[in-house]
């Protein structure tokens, strides 16, 4: 884990749509998080290994390796399996959500999603992942 | 009737005489008084029989012209045998010729020894004496006497005397006369005998003592037997003689006719004769009887047979009559016409049904008669077919006329020849079978069959059509399924594609409102808030559309669990608390005490109640909203009623209010937000949960929406 008190939590935002990445990245940075982005599944896996983020926001419909597959791989890899992953998807059907939970997503958030609601979910997941460290305050 | 004798020839010495002179004188007188040769011989033989113990005798006379020795008369010997006897005098070695020429009596004894040559005499093979007639001085006498019963010893002088006397007298009478008479007599006699013998019926002439004088062949068979015949034969003959003699005594006076039972000596069978006896004068003062026997054994048997046959005939006749009566009964009991025709084709019998077709009881020249005649012609023509052919049976179809109505009656005629045991055709029997009904039935059957086939064809067509429809439906169902799947996929995609830009709109609006991109003034903030509200409304519409799609395509999953409704209501109240806070409405709730836990899909019940409550809050400008939960035990239902004192719904709109995008007061509703899909979704969700939603409302007074759910829903 790379985050500590001096370094606010690093959030990896994965989305193939530019504005999708931009809105959440800009808001979370505004709210004091460190943010990295990836545009597809492969890049997400590479960035995850390279940056070891504190949490990943994973879009599911991605070109190439999709969000479900990328999550499955990250959760199967012991070096990345502890990183909480929030599926962030425009799919509204329960089946898509169930598949996301099945491959290891810790939570599912449906788009459209207000940036502040997303921030709340991020903080909840970070708290759940590091209960002893207390809440990271950007 | 001579028989071959095997005799020893012995010279006989003369014996002494014992007969008185008076007796001798009587013979002399008798012979002198008799002018004929044969009666003389007869007298002499009788005299000998009476006075000397002679039993049987034959007198033979020499015929110098023919040079033969011939039988003249006999005593106790069949006359035919005497007549038949004739010996050639030239046969010098014949023992009798030898005896004749010897001039001395000779005895022939039946000693069984071989003799120089066998010969026949009318006496058979008994021992006898041969005594030449006439004086011993003559070289060749006028004849010869053959005698039996003279004893083994020498013949007496009396015999010799009589022989000499007879010989002298015969010689005196002269041969020529004898010959002429004899020939005539012989001819007549032989003719007579031939006639008598020719008669097959036994004929007899008996003397007063019953002794047989003349017998023809038939009579001899019954009444005489040589010693060569077997014991049974001889006894039968003896019996016959006795029976015959006994019968003669009853026939003395005149011609009589009687029956006589005799025995056939050859076979031992009884023979019945009718005996016709007529007394005849044999000679002066002496009567004989001529008896003619007619064998009536066969006649009687024939009579008996005739009687028996007659009796049988009577019985057979009776049986036939009975059989005929029975046949009549049978024929009359048959309902179909039966006709019997003789070989000439004439109708000889009919039963009553046939009579109705072929006879006319009414007046002549009537219409009925004409029809009957037509029937007769048709029938006769049909039967003649049978007589023409060889077959025993004949079948055909005729069209007859009903004599009363003139209607055509189609009949099937079946004829059979009746042939006797001897192959003689005696009759033809014909049965007529009315085909009217059969033809009607056939017609009916055809119709039924046709209808049945039509029906079958229709069923086949319908079935084919059904199969086609089924196939079409199946294809349509498949296509629908595919379309439904495509639609679901499409809507999912649409939803995804709408959400993505909506996310950007709401996200950027939010960033700006949050001041992430710098400070904004109040006017900008107000306008951004409107963007946000519309974006949220769009999102609600998208979500509702997705719900409806899922419900309609049956892809809305139902997750049943046991829930407490009071808890659920608490949750709903919590969620709408901010909305209630923004109004001046009094919101109350009441729960009946006996509210049970129910098994249902918690999320969906919550969605419905939330929707109903939101509507109530939206469309009630002032007043109150009440939530009331009740348990209806008997109906097995619980109800959740949401009542308001709001604007209400006009009656005409109450039916369509549950349809998609229907809002009773569109402008007002739009102002209040809402997608127009809420009630549609509620009603469909309720029905997914085996429940329903009822509405009671008055315009301007308020509305009550009530969700009914089964208290004990069916097992999931």
Task: Give a short overview.
The complex is a heterodimer of chains A (138) and B (716). Chain A is of the alpha/beta class and 138 residues long. Chain A is built from 5 helices and 5 strands; from the N terminus they run E-H-E-H-E-H-E-H-E-H.
Characterise this structure.
The complex is a heterodimer of chains A (138) and B (716). Chain A is 43% helix and 17% strand. With 138 residues, chain A is α/β, with parallel strands linked by helices. Chain A has one domain (10-126): Response regulator (Rossmann fold, 3-Layer(aba) Sandwich), CATH 3.40.50. Chain A starts with 9 loop residues before the first strand and ends in a 9-residue tail after the last helix. With 716 residues, chain B is α+β, with helices and mostly antiparallel strands. Chain B folds into 5 domains: 3-188, Beta-Lactamase; 200-295, PAS domain (Beta-Lactamase); 335-428, PAS domain (Beta-Lactamase), CATH 3.30.450.20; 435-556, Signal transduction histidine kinase, dimerisation/phosphotransfer (DHp) domain (Helix Hairpins, Orthogonal Bundle), CATH 1.10.287; 558-710, Heat Shock Protein 90. Helix content of chain B is 47%, strand content 23%. In chain B, strands 2-6-8-9-3-4-5 form a 7-stranded antiparallel sheet, sandwiched between helices. The radius of gyration of chain B is 79 Å and the shape is rod-shaped. Mean pLDDT of chain B is 82; it is low at 1-8 and 10-15. The A-B interface holds A 17, 19-20, 23-24, 26-27, 30, 61, 90-94, 110-116 and B 492, 495-497, 499-500, 502-508, 510-511, 514, 516, 535, 539, 542-543, 546, 550, 557.
State the end-to-end CA separation of chain A. Answer: 16 Å
CATH architecture name of chain A: 3-Layer(aba) Sandwich
Helix proportion of residues of chain B, in percent? 40-55%
Q: Report the uncertain regions of chain A.
A: none
Described by strand count, sense and barrel closure, the largest sheet of chain B is: 7 strands, antiparallel
Biggest interface and its residues per chain?
Answer: A-B, 21 and 24 residues
Q: How far apart are the first and last residues' alpha carbons of chain B, in Å? A: 147 Å
């Amino acid at each position: 884990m790379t985050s500590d008190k001096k370094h606010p939590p690093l959030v990896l935002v994965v989305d193939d749509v530019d504005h999708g990445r931009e809105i959440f990245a800009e808001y979370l940075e505004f709210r004091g998080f460190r943010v990295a982005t990836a545009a597809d599944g492969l890049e997400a896996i590479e960035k995850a290994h390279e940056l070891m983020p504190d949490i990943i926001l994973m879009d599911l419909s991605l070109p190439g390796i999709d969000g479900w597959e990328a999550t499955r791989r990250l959760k199967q890899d012991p070096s990345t399996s502890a990183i909480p992953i929030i599926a962030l998807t425009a799919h509204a059907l329960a089946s898509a959500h169930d598949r996301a939970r099945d491959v290891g997503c810790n939570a599912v958030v449906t788009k459209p999603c207000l940036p502040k609601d997303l921030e709340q979910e991020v903080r909840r997941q970070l708290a759940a992942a590091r209960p002893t460290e207390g809440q990271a305050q950007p | 009737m001579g028989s071959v004798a095997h005799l020893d020839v012995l010279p006989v010495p003369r014996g002494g005489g014992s007969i008185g002179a008076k007796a001798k004188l009587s013979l002399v007188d008798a012979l002198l008084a008799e002018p004929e040769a044969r009666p003389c011989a007869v007298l002499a033989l009788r005299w000998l029989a009476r006075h000397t113990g002679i039993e049987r005798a034959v007198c033979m006379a020499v015929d110098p012209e023919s040079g033969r020795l011939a039988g003249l008369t006999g005593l106790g010997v069949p006359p035919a045998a005497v007549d038949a006897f004739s010996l050639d005098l030239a046969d010098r070695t014949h023992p009798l010729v030898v005896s004749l020429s010897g001039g001395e009596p000779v005895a022939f004894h039946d000693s069984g020894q071989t003799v120089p040559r066998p010969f026949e005499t009318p006496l058979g093979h008994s021992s006898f004496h041969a005594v030449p007639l006439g004086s011993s001085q003559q070289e060749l006498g006028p004849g010869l006497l053959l005698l039996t019963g003279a004893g083994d010893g020498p013949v007496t002088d009396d015999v010799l005397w009589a022989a000499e006397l007879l010989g002298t007298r015969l010689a005196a009478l002269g041969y020529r006369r004898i010959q002429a008479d004899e020939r005539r007599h012989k001819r007549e006699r032989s003719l007579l005998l031939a006639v008598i013998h020719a008669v097959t019926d036994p004929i007899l002439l008996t003397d007063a003592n019953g002794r047989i004088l003349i017998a023809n062949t038939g009579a001899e068979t019954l009444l005489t037997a040589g010693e060569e015949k077997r014991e049974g034969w001889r006894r039968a003959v003896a019996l016959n003689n006795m029976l015959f003699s006994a019968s003669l005594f009853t026939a003395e006076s005149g011609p009589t006719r009687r029956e006589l039972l005799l025995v056939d000596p050859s076979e031992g069978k009884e023979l019945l004769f009718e005996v016709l006896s007529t007394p005849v004068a044999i000679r002066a003062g002496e009567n004989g009887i001529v008896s003619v026997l007619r064998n009536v054994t066969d006649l009687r048997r024939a009579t008996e047979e005739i009687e028996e046959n007659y009796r049988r005939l009577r019985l057979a006749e009776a049986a036939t009559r009975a059989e005929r009566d029975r046949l009549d009964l049978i024929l009359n009991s048959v309902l179909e016409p039966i006709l019997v025709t003789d070989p000439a084709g004439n109708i000889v019998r009919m039963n009553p049904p046939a009579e109705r077709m072929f006879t006319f009881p009414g007046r002549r020249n009537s219409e009925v008669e004409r029809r009957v005649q037509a029937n007769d012609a048709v029938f006769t023509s049909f039967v003649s077919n049978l007589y023409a052919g060889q077959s025993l049976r004949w079948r055909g179809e005729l069209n007859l006329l009903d004599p009363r109505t003139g209607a055509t009656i189609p009949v099937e005629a079946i004829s059979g020849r009746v042939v006797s045991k001897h192959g003689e055709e005696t009759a033809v029997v014909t049965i007529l079978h009315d085909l009217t009904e059969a033809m009607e039935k056939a017609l009916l059957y055809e119709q039924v069959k046709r209808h049945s086939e039509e029906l079958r064809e229709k069923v086949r067509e319908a079935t084919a059509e059904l199969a086609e429809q089924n196939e079409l439906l199946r294809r349509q169902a498949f296509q629908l399924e595919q379309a439904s799947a495509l639609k679901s996929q499409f809507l999912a995609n649409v939803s995804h594609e709408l959400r993505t830009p909506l996310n950007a709109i709401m996200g950027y609006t939010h960033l700006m409102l949050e001041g992430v991109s710098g400070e904004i003034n109040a006017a900008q903030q107000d306008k951004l808030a409107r963007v946000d509200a519309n974006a949220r409304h769009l999102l609600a519409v998208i979500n509702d559309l997705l719900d409806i799609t899922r419900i309609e395509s049956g892809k809305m999953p139902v997750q049943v669990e046991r829930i407490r409704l009071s808890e659920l209501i608490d949750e709903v109240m919590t969620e709408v608390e901010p909305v209630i806070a923004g109004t001046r409405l009094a919101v109350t709730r009441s729960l009946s005490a006996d509210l049970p836990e129910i098994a249902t899909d918690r999320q969906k019940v919550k969605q419905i109640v939330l929707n109903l409550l939101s509507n109530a809050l939206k469309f009630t400008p002032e007043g109150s909203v009440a939530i009331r939960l009740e348990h209806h035990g008997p109906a097995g239902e619980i109800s959740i009623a949401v009542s308001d004192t709001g604007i209400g719904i006009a009656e005409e709109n109450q039916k369509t209010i549950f349809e998609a995008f229907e809002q009773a007061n569109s402008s007002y509703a739009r102002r209040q937000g809402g997608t127009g899909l809420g009630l549609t979704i509620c009603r469909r969700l309720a029905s997914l949960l085996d429940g329903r939603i009822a509405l009671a409302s008055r315009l301007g007074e308020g509305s009550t929406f009530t969700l009914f759910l089964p208290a004990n829903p069916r097992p999931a």
